[in-house]
Amino acid sequence: MIDLSKFDVNEVANRNNNIFGLPFSEEDARVVILPVPWEVTVSCNAGTARAIEHIFKTSTQIDLFDPNMRRGWKKGFYMREPDKKILMKSDYLRKEAELYIDFIAHGQDINNNKFMLKSLKEINEGSEMLNNWVYEQTKDLLNRGKLVGLLGGDHSVSLGYFKALAEKYESFGVLQIDAHCDLRKAYEKFNYSHASIMYNALNEVPAIERLVQAGVRDYCEAEWNYICNSNYKVVTYFDQQVKERFFGGENWKIIADEMIQYLPDNVYFSFDIDGLDPKLCPNTGTPVPGGFQSDEVLYLLRKIIESGKKLIGFDLVEVGVGETNYDAVVASRLLWKICNLFVKSNCTDEPE
Predict the structure, then answer these.
(1) What is the mean pLDDT of residues 272-296?
(2) What is the DSSP string of 54-121?
(3) What is the rounded CA–CA span in Å between residue 272 and residue 73?
(4) Contact 329, 58 (CB under 8 A)
(5) What are phi and psi of 192, to 5 degrees?
(6) Full-model pTM
(7) Chain-centroid distance, C-alpha 24
(8) Residue 303 Rama label (left phi>0; alpha psi -120 to 50; beta)
């Protein structure tokens, strides 16, 4: 057990320590954050694979006081170093994907181009490798009794973690904060596209009992039909509908309580940062006008935990990189709050 007697929570963070300036090792930490620097299939702006290092750096500027869980950090938060082999593979395949996406965007037929067919095959095989890697990493951490959070990378990185959780929990629900439904089947012929994560999750992970989506404001007709024909397995709170309820006089508590009723007892929190108003994430890959304020999302998460439901895992994905560290500043503070709520949901008492 780590000795915290000489760690002053009120002093400047020691940058030689780990995430948030905390002095924990992976062995000592209750919460382990697994970074996944992968962005092969992003449709618009790249950069999320390298946002992880920016989030880590800005995390040391956070004051370690959270009134919702004042000493939750004493349970230990730790982030692994990003795997360089995964990042290098992502960089290589991202270049292939950019050429491929440009090719099909000009109406070209890949069946007449052996190079593009080869690229597509390599990208799909690389994505399968990534899914298996995330599955193995998260399964090992879960077996060691860790609470696990993923830090992306693009949204496709979550599938392997869903599969690992399905071996621990007979059933669970997913709360997805996102500007997009991510219910496209093999978008751009990428089997594991970031735009297909929830389609793949619902088709490959039977343990997912229900998907509740919020913040959605950019989607295609096929996704709309999928939701309408899901028999409430997918419940989507479209951004326009939520805003119109606000304009009609309803408050966020009423809507949040309604959302929570759709979720089962075990809840996975999947947070694509583009679910927020893009002023909070201007460099995310596919920004869309509208969306939530950060406090609204954290309020919903707190209310889920206060309802007695259990947070079993989370991801924070699609954070971008810009000329300043603004995106990382927002993301690191959200990550801090989520980690504290994760501990609150899984620990019966707060450390002294």
Answers:
(1) 97
(2) HHHHHHTTS-S--TTSTTGGGG-EEEPPPPHHHHHHHHHHHHHHHHHHHHHHTT--GGG-HHHHHHHH
(3) 24
(4) yes
(5) -120, 50
(6) 0.96
(7) 23
(8) alpha
